[in-house]
């Protein structure tokens, strides 16, 4: 056995692995079922990306009931889908999983975002009596969070006999990810009442929830909690604070945190610029210019969307054009995407340069997106250009044929223009597609 282990430790090629595997099967009968040998064999297979060989070896010999340690080691090493496959074969061969198996296989299911498999394994957990194991419970919750199944996640959480900081953090993270920000913050408060001290992951998710729903008081409380506990303001936590203060309109606080951070990345800079762009466009552009010259930092596609949108909202047409031209010319290392073009169309349409906006749409290197046509429609309507508004509305209907509001807008436009035949045509199209209006638009009747 020691000889085989030494060979596995000193493998130099895939061919060597295959030779050892042959020896294990032919000359050392059942030695691959030894937990120590299996551990080194699986590790060697992983280092040469030959885990399929390990998978097939143990799949074909499951009738020998390999030790659960071997099964767990292999499940952990395999990719998520193959891990679940091996777990299935284990169950068919009546190899009982233990409390270490479940967190590993549930992690794989979480990566796959497969709620049905999550429910299957949940049933196995209950049947095996592992339902009160805190690590298994936390892993189950993570599966349901990854699938957006917060009802099941809450059920697991409520039924747990013991909860730790991970349990609470998973709940808060899940609520935040599915947009239930108030529930996330309520859970965060309940965590304090339960006497569980949050960790940095908890705090980052709670701050993100604060930023998304404007809960500045809670955000400030969390910042004070960080200071009180003398936590170092690392990159992720610092960026979360900058983002929270920026989105809540507390620009000076965002700037203060930003300046105090020893390390910053593109996300940090974007959070600051985005916050400033909401009400202090000139200052946002100044920081954008500073970012352009910052060593080790480069504006990314999000940065450009933020500054172009800020220019559009503030009517800074010339500045917006300059930035877009620089983007086209490769200054930032990437070409504009649909969001950047939508910002340019918005910039021109808002300022009444509707024909120029239309030319941009015609010259785009790809099909205009929904946001592009929405930007044109909004600009045309605000400047009373009804014909072009209708053109934009028709294109939105092509992209989203079942979205009611675009039909209603188009009907209102034709009604305002006194174009009864076109209005009737849209009404008939809606009827044919089974689209109903909740509220009647102008001249919404068949006698028009």
Relevant terms:
globular; 448 residues; disordered C terminus; mainly alpha
Chain-wise SSE layout:
Elements: H1 2-9, H2 14-26, H3 35-47, H4 51-59, H5 68-77, H6 80-92, H7 101-112, H8 115-128, H9 134-146, H10 150-159, H11 165-177, H12 181-193, H13 200-213, H14 216-228, H15 235-247, H16 251-260, H17 266-277, H18 281-292, H19 301-314, H20 317-328, H21 338-350, H22 354-363, H23 370-382, H24 386-399, H25 404-417, H26 420-432
Helix pairs in contact: 1-3, 3-4, 3-5, 5-6, 5-7, 6-7, 7-8, 7-9, 8-9, 9-10, 9-11, 10-11, 11-12, 11-13, 12-13, 13-14, 13-15, 15-16, 15-17, 16-17, 17-18, 17-19, 18-19, 19-20, 19-21, 20-21, 21-22, 21-23, 22-23, 23-24, 24-25, 25-26
Description:
With 448 residues, this protein is an all-alpha fold. It is built from 26 helices and no strands. It has helices at 2-9, 14-26, 35-47, 51-59, 68-77, 80-92, 101-112, 115-128, 134-146, 150-159, 165-177, 181-193, 200-213, 216-228, 235-247, 251-260, 266-277, 281-292, 301-314, 317-328, 338-350, 354-363, 370-382, 386-399, 404-417, 420-432. Helix 15 (235-247) runs parallel beside helix 17 (266-277).
SSE order, as H and E?
Answer: HHHHHHHHHHHHHHHHHHHHHHHHHH
The global form is globular
- Which ranges are low-confidence, i.e. pLDDT below 50, for 5 or more consecutive residues? 439-448
Structural class: mainly alpha
Distance between the termini: 91 Å
Give the percentage of residues in beta strands.
under 5%
- Helicity level, as a percent range? over 70%
Radius of gyration, in Å, reads: 29 Å
